[in-house]
Amino acid sequence: MMTERLQPPNQSKALHAIALFEGVKGITASFGLLSLAHHDVRAMAYALIGHFHLDPDAHYPRILLNDATLLANANLRQAVLLAWAYASIRLTEGYGLWKDRAWAEWLAAVSGAVYLPLELSHLMAHTTVINGMVLGGNVAVVAYMVVRLWRRRNQSAVVAN
Fold this sequence. Notes:
Elements (H helix, E strand, L loop, with lengths): L8 H27 L5 H11 L7 H15 L2 H23 L3 H24 L3 H32 L1
Helix pairs in contact: 1-4, 2-3, 4-5, 5-6
């Protein structure tokens, strides 16, 4: 059974904007990761944690340090594969959002929600307009995806009945 996609043009534009953002994020993040291949990533992680006045023994900074250690111990091939995998996920998400796929909305909602606690704690420690905009933008994307998924579920229930 085929369902029609009846979205107002502004919803389609918003979804396309998020799709483009995810694709660009994947490409730029993978290039950024590749640029770290010849640097002391663990020292950079400690500097980042110190810059934001975070406790290195706290949960999220510890995750960052563990990942930095893994990346520092990884060879260039592993770094390239990691960058490729991240870019592939983001580009796939962007494609799915552009094509209005439910799986991409789930991926966008979950992957965006994962960052919310870290962004909130960062905003609480360092309240700036930029940090507030990053958190607000991420909350808006997650909320938008959740609303779309909720509407999609309700639309499927109506079609099934």
